[in-house]
Each structure stands twice: as structure tokens, then as C-alpha cells.
Amino acid sequence: MSKYNLELEYVIPDVDINEDELQEIICEANHIIKNKDSDPETLLWAYVKKGQAIQESKNIDIEKSKPYFTKALKMCPDMLPALLGMGRIYESSYSKCQDDKKAFAYYNQAVNIMPNYPASYLELVRLYDQDDEERIVNCTKAISLKPDYAVAFWRRGYAHSFRGESDQAIADYTEAIRLKPNWSFMYNLRGNVYNYEKGDFDKAIADYTESIHINPDFSYNYKDRGYAYDKKGNKDDAITDFLHFINVGWEEGFEYRFGRKNTREHYESHYFKSDSIQDEINSDKQNMENKKAIENYNSILSVNPGDKYSLKKRAELYVQVEEYDLAIVDYSELLRLVEVSLVEISDKLESDVIELDAIIAYEKRGIVWHYKGEIDKAIADLSDSIYLSLKQECGGLGIYLHRSSLYAEKGEYDKAIMDIATGFRFYFPPGLVPYAFADRGLYYNRIGNYSKAIKDCTEAIRIMPDFSAAYRDRGEAYIGKHQYKKAIKDLDEAIRLDNQNASAYYFRGEAYRLSRKYKNALADYDEALKIEPDFIETIQKRELVYNKIT
Q1: Which pLDDT does position 432 carry in this prediction?
Q2: What does the alpha-carbon distance between residue 148 and residue 142 come to, in Å, rounded to a whole number?
Q3: Do 157 and 172 meet the contact criterion of CB atoms below 8 Å apart?
Q4: What does the alpha-carbon distance between residue 127 and residue 135 come to, in Å, rounded to a whole number?
């Protein structure tokens, strides 16, 4: 059967179809569209097929599919695949015109036209405003209509995993693997459940190994398998996998976390022993080494001003010695050079490699703008980094978390919440997940949605039981719901885990004050002020309670 005749709404790129085959579909559709003798039905499907193939392609922006779905819907307003295609344009984080309300309208229209069309329910699953229970319901409906719908099993397994339902997640991932045995990503996801939720490290290692066998270039398999080896006490294999992850994958991310020396001794000492790499960076000795390194890069760049690697490294050093203006100059020059290189390079692979420099430069320049207090400029740079990383299919939770914190600083909590929801939809470092839930819980507190705040903080605590900030934020949410006993219990735990948490004392003081236990409240306000003497809210509330007592 010709690939053109596939139901493209059900295919999995790189599993059922490859990039060359997608281009063949586009060429065949172009031939039909250009043929003036094509009958209306054939022409209608050509528009749809071309739009779908563009959306599945890694090399074409998703917005470029819009004219073809628009033409299809003009010919047939009830054309289901075209409605779903339009929904994906507005739903996709890859799209510059993302609009969840428009996406939902198209998906909902498709469901209303044909309630028994499986793909419609699965598209609804991808929207932000669905909670995990709704996702499970929609996936189950899609599976009931199409029992071999591997993607529906994947999505339902993902939702089960977020709800802490590990066995159900494993069962769904296992069925997806049975249906699509060459789908390497499923082995990785099932391995993550074994690794991070069940603690069954042998099964996790087996799944990661199988995923690597199918797709050796998926670098996160090495990182995740390294964690599993580490938990088993197999340090040598763990370090080997971590170093392989560096070499094939996220080198920049690991340099930022672990330092610059790519040696076994360095990772052994820092990954397995050190809790505070920042202390080393801030030491006088390190500062002297950094300044000497800057002089070396100055010499290199005086001879070769276009050396992108030296510019990048010098910018990083400027950040470490807090010369932020100079770092911004270097990152800006690096971005200019990248733009020039992209114009000159026609090779796709080489272009992708060069574009990675831009992703990193935008992100790091955004971080420097944040250090300088230039929040809008920081958001703009992080947004550019996100857009390019999505094109390269290397989006992750970390950068969304960072941008969400910037939106929160501006008081734009809806955008902050949206960023975290977006980050959850991509493969992400599992260690960031509890922080993402806790941050979103905090933002829900700020907009007064205490029920959702409690739900997110509870999930953060489930994943990381010793997470003091999550107990504090859930305690704050319970105060918002006037459940003061629950609030005090959570804040007791927050303080037990971190007795230097000034805001935990403050909120427990608030719970006591609202419970009319003024002496207890006063004692907590005093403890908070010992830690943060300039805590304005605490000073004000202490004065209020003190006046009541006296």
C-alpha cells in the first residue's frame, strides 16, 4: 500500500513512517493539487494529506500546514482530519500561533460531528486544561473505539504515571510496546516507571538497554540507565553512562550542572560526593583561574574573532566572575555569528548543529538578563531558546520552569502555570518534576486556586517526601481554604525538615492567628524574624497580634 493511503492521524513518526516517506506523500499531494483534472474528492484528500504530512515532518514548521487544512475545510466544513489538523496547529507548542481555546473548539467540533472517531478524543488529551482523570477517560474512549491505538495506550500510561498509578502505567506502556515493538520511547517511559516510581532497577535497566538497542541516539536512555546503575551501587557503569550521555546528548546542560572538566574523576567526585559545586566556583582560587582563562580566550579571539567556541566559553567565565555586561556582549556576538553561519550553510545536519549554539546562547543570555534584573529581556531570550529547541525536538522541563519563574516575578501567574503545563508535555529530567509541581502549586496559591495548589503540592510531596517548600505551600493553601489544623500540621513538617524556612514560620503564625491562638502566632512570627529580620508581612502581622494580646 502506498504511504499516501495511510491514515496519517494514527501513524507514529520514525516508527510507522520516516521523513523520506513523508516527503513522498507531500510530492504526491502536490501532483494532485497541480492537476487541473483532479476530481473534488481526490483534491480534498490531497490538501488533507499534505497538511498532515507537513505536521508529522521534523523539517517543516507546523504553521505551514494551515493553508491546506483551510482549503480542505472550505471544500468540506465537516472534514474530520482537517478539523483535527487545524486543532493541532493551535494546540502545538511548536506553533507560533498557539491558542488552546481555538484548539479545543476544533477538537470539540470533531467530536460532535462524529462521536465514534478515536483520534478526536486523543487530541483532547493533549490540551492543558485537562486533568489526569479526564485524560484517562478520553484515552479509554479512544481505545474502546480503536483497540490497537498504541498512542492512546501511551497517553493513558503517562496520565496514570502522573497520578502515581505505577502498575496501570506499566500495563499501558506494555500494551503500547506489544502493538509497536520498535517504539524505543515506550521502553524508556516504562523504564522510568520501574526506575523512579517502583524502584525495580533491574527491569528499568533492561528497558533502557532495549531502547538503546532500537535507537542508540536517544541520549536520555544513558542518563536514566546511569541513575538506575547508581541506585544499584554500580558506580562504574553509572559513570560510563553519564559520560556517554555527555558525549551524545546534553553536554551543555551537564557542564552547567557539574562543571567543565569532562573526566571520570570529576564526575565521580561531583556527582557522587559533592552537594555544592557553587562553593567551588565561588572560591578565590577558582576566580583566579577564571580570570586567567578569560585572558587566554582574549588572546584566541584577538587572532580569530569568529571563534564561536571561545566566545561561548568566555561568556560563561564572565558570568562566573559576575561581569554580566561583558557576558551579554559575547552571547550577542555568538548569536550574530550563528545567524551568519545559518545563511551560509545548506547542509541540514550541519545547520542543526549550528542552531544548537543559538539555543544555548539565547538561554544563557536570558539567564544573565535575569541576573541583571531585566525580566522582559530574559523572557524574550528564553522564548527564542524554547522556540528553536522545539524545532530541534529537544524541549525539556527546565527552561519552561525558568521562564515560569520570570512570569511569576512579574505577577503573570497564568502564564507561569501555562509554562509548567507545557513543560510536562515533553520528556524532562525526572529530578525536576517535584519542583515543577511545587512551583505550580505556589502559583495556584497566588491566584487563589487553593484546591489545585493542594493537588500539585501533594504530588510534589509524593515524589519527594522530604520537600519542605511543598509542605509550606500546601499549608498556605489550607489556610486559604480555612482548614487551619491541616495547615499547622503541614507547616510543622515544613519546619521539621528545614528550621530555617522563615516563610513556614510566618504561615504557621498566620494559621495560629486565624485560629485565635495569638501567643503561638506571636512565637512563630518572632522565629520568622530571627531568620529574616526584614520580612515586612511578618513585622506587620506581629504588630497586629501583639496589640491584641496587650
Answers
A1: 80
A2: 10
A3: yes
A4: 9
